[in-house]
Amino acid sequence: MDKLPKIGLPLILIFSFILLIGGKTLVTINAGEAGVVFKTFDGGVVTDKPPLSEGLQFIMPWNSVVVYEVRQQEVFEKMNVLSSNGLEIKLEASAWFQPTIENLGKLHQEKGVNYKSRILLPAIRSAARSVVGRYTPEQLYSSKRDAIQLEIYDETKKIVADQYIQLNEILVRDVTLPPTIKEAIERKLKQEQESLEYEFRLESARKEADKVRIDAQGKADANRILNSSLTTNILRDKGIEATIKLASSNNSKVVVIGSGKDGLPLILGNN
What we know:
- The protein is elongated and about 130 Å long.
- A hairpin with a 5-residue loop joins strand 6 and strand 7 (88-99).
- The chain has a three-stranded antiparallel beta sheet with strand order 3-2-5. A three-stranded antiparallel beta sheet has the order 6-7-8. Strands 1-4 form a two-stranded antiparallel sheet.
- With 271 residues, it is of the alpha+beta class.
- It has four domains: 8-69, no CATH class; 73-177, Band 7 domain (Tetrahydropterin Synthase, Chain A, 2-Layer Sandwich); 186-229; 232-268, no CATH class.
- The chain contains seven helices and ten strands.
- Helix content is 48%, strand content 24%.
- Helix 3 (115-132) packs across helix 5 (145-160).
């Protein structure tokens, strides 16, 4: 130290002080993040100004910054809930969410960095128990999955609406029933499917029978009309027309040898 120039020691001290202070005054906010400032000597958490945005930010050395992720995030939750008839159902759901940036200071002050476990997950569990309790196991297993998902989303959103959390989506990942109940529901669904197929075959057979009956009735009606219209005079005129056409044929020789039935001539000979 004695060999250092007289100005060297002060420079080293100043440089060390700058590094020390600089490390506390410059804060880097990464992409998808925002920073909440805590003022040690001026009211604590800053809630009346926007949080620090992305990039290199300057703060006073006696203040501090808590960085939050503000991009959309996802949390998963597995829970046991009761159906409308009291049967225990295992439900797996996830939520897409993000903190509201404009209220990030209030979120930090009132809820803290563990707001997901303190606020969001309990809200999802409460909403899921309320919604699932309205449905039977069969409805949960088959046709009501989308409706349940939407209802859980609506109820969760109401709970977190004033908690500085933006809820984007609730996804019901899985609904697990006890094996015996699941097997019973699958048997019932299979029987219902078979019944529908049987009804379809019966309906097809009925339609085919109706078609055959209608066709037969149409033919019978046509024959009845034809028979009622074929009088003796009409038959005689038809016979005369046929005789004239046959007699005028170049390939026929006509010999009249007498009168046939109903006075029609007998036509013999063919070349």
